[in-house]
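Predicting structure from sequence has reshaped protein science. With that in mind, we have picked out one protein's residues alongside their backbone shape tokens:
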Amino acid sequence: MGDVEIRRSRKRTRTVRAYREGDKTIVLMPAHLSRPEEERHVRSLIERLERREKRVRPSDDELLDRAAALSREWLEGRAVPASVRWVSNQNSRWGSCTSAEGSIRLSDRLKGMPEWVVDYVLLHELAHLIEANHSSRFWALIEAFPQTERAKGFLEGVSWQRR
């Protein structure tokens, strides 16, 4: 089950919620719940998170295939990464790219997020294989992706929530 942190609140009256924070699972619940209720909720919420992550989080090989498809669709196939993989050591970035090597790394904090958010981050890093900085030429590469503003807002909201 991994590392689980239970956060009880007197303000929370009925709802229970769980989310991942790095390798840790945070469970929010009302303070009045009994230990057996807590254990039941924790098991259920973790199972639900794991099912969602399996659905949403592709393997590294699938990420490479997805990158190729995004490059073809939005970048005329000009971005060809040598590797794309999930990493767990990016706590302040959603993704990174080493253009000289053609390697892209996506933060495993993206797991469980909507597919269009992961696609945006992957497309963002692919664009860095063509344009290394955040110049107007860089932003022009990804402006056609219809979910750009929505994904940026989603990620900004997630980042703000974790402060």
Remarks:
- The first strand starts at residue 3 and ends at 9.
